[in-house]
Amino acid sequence: MLEGPNLYFPRAAVKLTVDVHPLAAADEATLRALAAGLGLRSVRAGAPLSGFRQRALVRVVTAVVRRVARESGTTRLGVRVRATAEADRLVVAFPWRDRARAQALGQQVVAVLDGLEGGGSLEELVAAAAAVVRDTPRGPGPTTVRPRVPLVAVTGTNGKTTTSRMVAHIAREAGHHVGWSSTDGVYVDGVLVEPGDYSGPSGAGQVLSRPEVDFAVTETARGGILLKGIGVTSNDVSVVTNVTADHLGLQGIDTVDQLAEVKAVVPSITRRDGWAVLNADDPRTLAMRGVTKAQPWLFSRDPDSPALREVLGAGGRATTVIDGWITVLEGRGSDLLLELVDVPMTLGGLSRFNVENALAAASAGLAAGLGREHVVAGLRSFRPDAEHNPGRMNFFTVPTERGDLCVVMDLAHNEAGLEAMVEIMRGVRAPGGRLLLGLGAVGDRTDELLEALGEIAARDTDVVAIGHKQKYLRGRTVAEMDALLRAGAERVGVTDVTSYPTELASLQALVAQAGPDDVVGLMCHAERQEVYDWLATLGATPDSAEQLATRVRRAAAQD
To answer: In this predicted model, what pLDDT tens digit does every residue of 89-105 receive, in sequence order?
Structure first.
C-alpha cells in the first residue's frame, strides 16, 4: 500500500507484484482466447516466456484489473502494468482512496489470475471477484500529509544526507524551528527525537505533525518511494543531487535509468510556484526538468555549462563556481555568495561531491525563501564533523607514539562514493604518505558492485583491510562478502587483503600500522558510534576547518 505519490501515480496507490508463470508459459492459442474474452484485439501472443508474451500479458492483466473494478462499481480507474526483468513477473499499480476496498480489489485481481491459470471461466471468476470487492467496507483513506509549512525534499544517490543536513542547518541559522527526517532518524532543531530510518513517508509525517516545526526538510530514499510512497502531497522545493548505480536489482529496479525514474518522483510533485533544484552535471538528473511543473534552479561546477545557459535564458536560476566563488546567476546578473575556501565542507574546493552539495544546499535555501545572509552564514558554519555531519567525511587527528595520524570516516556506500572518498584521502595526504582503507559494504548490493568496490579500493589505495558489517549482511554470509570483495582486488593484482569481523577491528588494525604521513580511511556504516568512542579513548579530536585547510595546502605542495 503506497501511502502517497509514487513511481506509478502522483497519489496513493496499490502495488502488486504478480507471478503469472502459467499464463506466460501457456500455448499461444490459450492466450489469444483469453485476450478475446477480455475484448482485446490484435494481441500478439508471442512464444511462451518471450518478450512478446510478457507484453501481451501486460495488456491482459490491465484488462482484468479494469474488468473487476468496473463490475464492482468503479467506472474509472487508472491502471499501470509494467514488465520486469523476469518474463513471468509483472508489477500492477492502481490508485486508491479506500484502504480496505482497494486491498480487496488487489487480492481479487490475483484470485482471477489464479483461476484463469487453472482453466476457470473468465466471466464467473470476474463476477465472483467483483462481488467480494463490492461487499468489502471502504476502510480509511491514505495517510498522505498536505504540508502546512515550507518543505524542502532532497533525494539522489550520493549526497542527499549531507545536503539535507546543510539545508536544515541554514534554516536554523535563519531562526526557524526545523524538522528534518532522514535515514538517521527524525530531528527537531538538531536534536534526535526518533532514531531509525525515517527516509520514507512516516518520517515526513513525523516532522510535519510536530506543532513547533515551521520549516521542514525531508531526505527521501529510493526504498521509501518504492515500498511506501512519498508521505506528502507536494513539496515547495525539491533537490536531486545525482543518480548513480546503487541498490540495483532490488524491487524491480535493475538499471540506472530506472533508478532515475524513481528519484524523479520527488521533483514531479513540486508545486508549480516552487523550485526544482537539479544537478546540471548529471544528465539523468538534468532530464528531470521534463517531469516537474516547478521552475528549474540548476547547480553546476561549470559556469559555462550549456544547460545553465538554456535555463537562464528561459527565466530559471543557477548556482555555480566562478573564480572560486559560489555564485548565483539569474538572467544576466550574478550574486557572489562566498568563496569555496570559506565553506569547510568543500575542503577548499578539494571535495568535488561536497562542492556540489554546497551548491545544492545554497540553491535550496534561497529557493525556499531563506535570507541570503543566512545561507552564507550556514555554509560557513557547517562542518565535516560528528556534530554537523555524522558519518560523512569526518576527519580526526589521532595522537600515537609515531606522531599524529589522519583518520577519515565516510559512508562511501557505492562506487561513486568510494571514489570520492579516495579522492579526498589523496587530497590531504602528506608528501610520501600512504593511503590505508577499511573496506566494507552491505549485503544487498549486486555481485558486480561488490567486486567493483574491491577493485577500486585495491587500485587506488596502498593497504586494504576488509571490515565486515555484521548487522547489514542482508541474506549474504561473511564468506560470500569476503570472496566478492577479494575477487575485485585480485582483478588489479592485489591479493594481500586482510579481513576483520567488524568495521572497528579493521580500523584498529590499520591505525596500528599507519605512520604520521599516512591517511587512514574507513567505510563506516554499522558501527559509527563504536568508532567514535574508540577514537575518543585514543585522544582523537575532530579536525577544525583550519586544520583541514593546512592538510590540503601541505598535500597540494607536493603536486
So the answer is: 999 999 999 999 999 99
Do 162 and 102 fall into the same domain? no
pLDDT grade for 252, boundaries at 50, 70 and 90: low
Ramachandran area for residue 415 (φ above 0: left; ψ -120 to 50: alpha; else beta): alpha
Specify whether 424 is located in the same domain as 532: yes
Separation CA 183–CA 410 (nearest Å): 15
Query: Do both 417 and 369 map to the same domain?
Result: no
Examine the domain organization and report whether 262 and 284 are in the same domain. yes
In a domain, 341, yes or no: yes
> Residue 92 domain-assigned?
yes
Give the range of the structural domain holding residue 116, as residue numbers without chain letter: 13-135
- Same domain assignment for residues 418 and 327: no
Please give the angle made by the CA atoms of 474, 477 and 479, to the nearest 5 degrees: 145
Distance separating alpha carbons of residues 283 and 133, to the nearest angstrom: 45
Whole-structure pTM value: 0.81
Dump pLDDT digits (tens) for 261-313. Answer: 989 999 999 999 999 999 999 999 999 999 999 999 999 999 999 999 999 99
Number of domains in the chain: 3
User: Are 204 and 230 a contacting pair, CB within 8 Å?
Assistant: yes
In a domain, 1, yes or no: no
Name residues whose C-beta falls within 8 Å of residue 442's C-beta, 6 or more positions apart in sequence: 413, 469, 472, 473, 474, 525
Look at residues 535, 162, 77, 226 and name the one whose alpha carbon lies nearest to residue 382.
Answer: 162
Asked if residue 428 belongs to a domain, the reply is: yes
pLDDT confidence tier of residue 251, bands split at 50, 70 and 90: low
Which amino acid belongs to residue 81?
V
Q: Which of residues 135, 162, 181 is at a domain's end?
A: 135
Nearest in space to 156 (alpha carbons), one of 232, 231, 242, 77: 242
Q: Which residues contact 49 (CB under 8 A, 6 or more apart)?
A: 24, 25, 87, 88
